[in-house]
Fold this sequence. Notes:
The complex is a heterodimer of chains A (310) and B (302).
Chain A: H1 31-43, E1 47-52, E2 70-74, H2 79-95, E3 106-112, H3 113-119, H4 121-129, E4 134-140, H5 181-186, E5 192-196, H6 201-211, E6 217-223, H7 227-230, H8 237-246, E7 253-256, E8 259-262, H9 271-276, H10 291-308
Parallel strand pairs in A: 1-2, 1-3, 3-4, 4-6, 5-6
Antiparallel strand pairs in A: 5-7, 7-8
Helix pairs in contact in A: 1-6, 2-4, 3-4
Chain B: E1 2-9, H1 14-27, E2 31-36, E3 46-54, E4 69-72, E5 94-98, H2 103-109, E6 115-119, H3 121-129, H4 136-147, H5 151-164, H6 169-185, E7 236-240, H7 250-254, E8 260-262, E9 268-270, H8 280-284, E10 290-294, H9 297-301
Amino acid sequence: xxxxxxxxxxxxxxxxxxxxxxxxxxxxxxxxxxxxxxxxxxxxxxxxxxxxxxxxxxxxxxxxxxxxxxxxxxxxxxxxxxxxxxxxxxxxxxxxxxxxxxxxxxxxxxxxxxxxxxxxxxxxxxxxxxxxxxxxxxxxxxxxxxxxxxxxxxxxxxxxxxxxxxxxxxxxxxxxxxxxxxxxxxxxxxxxxxxxxxxxxxxxxxxxxxxxxxxxxxxxxxxxxxxxxxxxxxxxxxxxxxxxxxxxxxxxxxxxxxxxxxxxxxxxxxxxxxxxxxxxxxxxxxxxxxxxxxxxxxxxxxxxxxxxxx
Amino acid sequence: xxxxxxxxxxxxxxxxxxxxxxxxxxxxxxxxxxxxxxxxxxxxxxxxxxxxxxxxxxxxxxxxxxxxxxxxxxxxxxxxxxxxxxxxxxxxxxxxxxxxxxxxxxxxxxxxxxxxxxxxxxxxxxxxxxxxxxxxxxxxxxxxxxxxxxxxxxxxxxxxxxxxxxxxxxxxxxxxxxxxxxxxxxxxxxxxxxxxxxxxxxxxxxxxxxxxxxxxxxxxxxxxxxxxxxxxxxxxxxxxxxxxxxxxxxxxxxxxxxxxxxxxxxxxxxxxxxxxxxxxxxxxxxxxxxxxxxxxxxxxxx
Lengths: 310, 302
């Protein structure tokens, strides 16, 4: 059975109103900002954002804020703990009658991949275990971007970062495999997890609409195509995001109470098309082609889809 | 000692230009020092980089406050207070601006002192390199020419620095050729040699402290980021041709900024003060209703 969108069937159903206003200092062509902007169209304005330090720090750089709601800033490792505090405070206020139920707010954690995959992993694990009613929005640009693109556990094999350069010892650059945070989250059996990508706005909107029906942890992984760190022209963000999905490298899927559904089955173009667009993979093609590394990346994708069994 | 300060926008290549200049000077046997400003080095944001060149060891460190030469990669930075372009610029400072205007035209438009010289590097890069790209090699060559370094060392420095960034050999060669052209054509302005700038002692002032309540943030402020104009970030702008638009909303759905709104008639409109010029909308437009135009000082204000 193929996955069907129920709420968002046509692109003209995307709400026109903006909830993340322009004027932030995020890079031109930021894929993460694009994903957040679309997500906020479903989340609305009654939101408290709990922001782990990262690129999104620049969203609400004093004295400016793009949000109509509140924004709480935390360290990289403690955003879900911050969310717990905000949720508890809201619950207490409602229980005491000092806040009406209608005035309740959604609590949304914003964390980069450095925070999500690395520093805040234990904090997130704790929050899911405690069944905290919150959203987690991870903008994954596959490295510590705000500090200048250092290796993170989300960096895929073969990418060049400032701390995993292409060298004689490691001609492929990064030697590790990208950590599968989706499966780590899924092992906790939260009610809703999904991956999204900015070039697929309807898929993204639909997933946020679906998640709103669940109480408890609702976790999102957003592909955050990054012109600054992935070294491509900002105008190519839609193309890079599209190819990440179409090559099968970034599967669009959701897991409801641990049961996975793939929401889009790509025809699977060769990964080369995706890699070639980005400067961080250029060393795989120039000056000498590293066929083995490219084959390795392709094989990982093939293996993944083989076990998906579609 | 010669002190050169580069101003650019993230992604334009100001940092690499400072490295090219430093490496070229080093290749000629000088002592050289180059460093970028540390800060939010993001696409479009103002960045600065510094190169010092001398015959004797350089003891000075940090940012350059009294530059002999200022290289401005993007003319819009001159109006941006966050870029600190005027800092330490006096009538003896040579100021290079990447602009299609002449030095006289530019001088008449600005209150900045200094001896101006200009060359349209962005135009040259578009014409000769074919696509919008970093102009670090051209900036480095122009700075080298103005400071009096040899063409050969600039050429070699470009090869070294661009190779380090992972550029392919043919692209490096094209950069070298275009850079050589810029080296030749940039109007030279004499830099005072041997004149030492008198160092004035800076009087230490006791800081005055305000009570914490004064100037503290109003944390209940509403959404106000939209009052900032992002126009200065653009080198290029998307232009909508309404006659070709089929009203598909893809540009609206893919604009990371929300700078594209949908009018009551269902057609999109670009609000330029919010557009950073990423051109994602141009990429997704299926009917080529969105085209790219180069930003000029006049269009930026419109």
